[in-house]
Write a structure and sequence with these properties.
Number of helices: 12
Strand order of the largest sheet: 3-2-1-4-5
CATH architecture of the largest domain: 2-Layer Sandwich
Number of strands: 13
Order of helices and strands: EHEHEHEHHEHHEEHEEEHEHEEHH
Number of domains: 2
CATH superfamily of the largest domain: ATP-grasp fold, B domain
Strand content: 15-25%
Bound molecules: adenosine-5'-triphosphate
Largest sheet: 5 strands, parallel
Radius of gyration: 21 Å
């Protein structure tokens, strides 16, 4: 338990999603880094020189074949969106290597019913869910579970319209009918450290989705003539700063989510997470999802964001903030505080 103890640990993640940022942040904090990547995806990790070691696997599903190598290297795995989606929340629970973050929270995040319960108990405003299509009395967005990047989601305005549209997807049985909120999307990137007991707002983004973000480039008449159907395939992220007067509410919302997470899991949520919401014209926040890990929108801020710039005297990405949390835990003899 001394300064420099952190060097016993290495930081590892799989090569996708936010790996460049995580590894760069870890190197900036003085860690050695490992990336586990698919053979055909090695190039960026070599080119950007963020990985001290590259471990190749054929497919991400073969991850467990190399887990022992990570254990031998005293590596701490940083989970991200692709890590959780390639392994699945159940297999993440089986990891034996060190893992940053509370694994149990992933179950709450990945189960739509549990996620809703968590967010509602955190006193957040959520779009209404219609269990019975006959009750549709306002615009709704129909989301298929596991739809990659929102492909195939559709909007309906009435029970009849829903029935017509759902017939186009005879295979799909697992979907949610959610009230469609008219407003702007906002993704708030948070970081909570158990060591400091403090919640930070790191940054914000909005997504650049195809074709939703380009439909306005042609006239409404042409949209109808060509029969365009809206999709939300994510292609990238766009930076946003939020009206400053909204920040107090956003801090309070994040704090309630962390507080509630302690009631539903041992240890609760810590590290990066994201509240995904629509803000309507009356400045109400409608949260439609939580990601209980680093989100790809933070890739905008490898050099820090306008918000982290206020708080830190070095460029502080979310990836680097994770590494700093681990470093402070290790140097303080409290490494278990960041593992789960
Ligand atoms: P995932 O992270 O699981 O891929 P996501 O974060 O892309 O999901 P989705 O729930 O798939 O979010 O939503 C896709 C798009 O639809 C987003 O652009 C979001 O702004 C929009 N959207 C989602 N729910 C609503 C809603 N209730 N009202 C209005 N727009 C919504």
């Amino acid at each position: 338990m001394a300064q420099g103890d952190f060097k016993k640990y290495r930081i590892a993640t799989i090569g996708s999603h936010t790996a460049l940022q995580i590894l760069k942040g870890a190197k900036d904090e003085g860690f050695e880094t490992i990336v586990v990547c698919q053979k055909d995806q090695r190039k960026p990790y070599e080119s950007y020189r963020v990985a001290d070691e590259i471990i190749e696997i054929e497919k991400f599903k073969d991850f467990f074949e190399i887990e022992q190598q990570l254990i031998e290297r005293n590596a701490i795995i940083i989970p991200h969106g692709s890590f959780v989606s390639y392994l699945g929340p159940q297999r993440v629970q089986q990891l034996k290597a060190m893992h940053y973050g509370t694994k149990a929270i992933l179950e709450w995040e990945s189960d739509r019913t549990k996620e809703r319960e968590w967010l509602l108990n955190s006193d957040l405003r959520l779009p209404k869910i219609f269990k019975n299509p006959d009750d549709i009395d306002r615009p709704v967005i129909v989301k298929f579970h596991g739809a990659k990047g929102g492909l195939g989601y559709f909007i309906a305005n009435s029970p009849n319209e829903f029935k017509q549209r759902i017939d186009e997807y005879p295979e799909e049985k697992d979907y949610a009918i959610q009230e469609y909120i008219v407003g702007v999307p906002m993704y708030a990137h948070y970081f909570y450290s158990r060591l400091t007991g403090e919640l930070e707002i790191m940054s914000f983004d909005k997504r650049y989705e195809s074709n939703a973000d380009s439909i306005g480039r042609i006239a409404a008449k042409d949209q109808i003539d060509v029969g365009i159907k809206t999709s939300y395939t994510i292609t990238g992220n766009i930076p946003v700063v939020i009206r400053e007067s909204l920040l107090p509410q956003l801090f309070a919302m994040g704090e309630r989510v962390v507080e509630e997470s302690r009631k539903i899991t041992d240890g609760g949520l810590f590290g990066p997470f994201c509240l995904e919401m629509i803000i309507d014209k009356d400045l109400q926040f409608w949260v439609f999802e939580i990601s209980a890990r680093i989100v790809a929108g933070t890739n905008l801020y490898i050099k820090g964001s306008p918000y982290t710039d206020l708080r830190y005297d070095v460029p502080m990405s979310t990836g680097r903030r994770i590494a700093r949390d681990i470093k402070e835990a290790a140097d303080g003899g409290k490494i278990e505080e960041v593992l789960g």
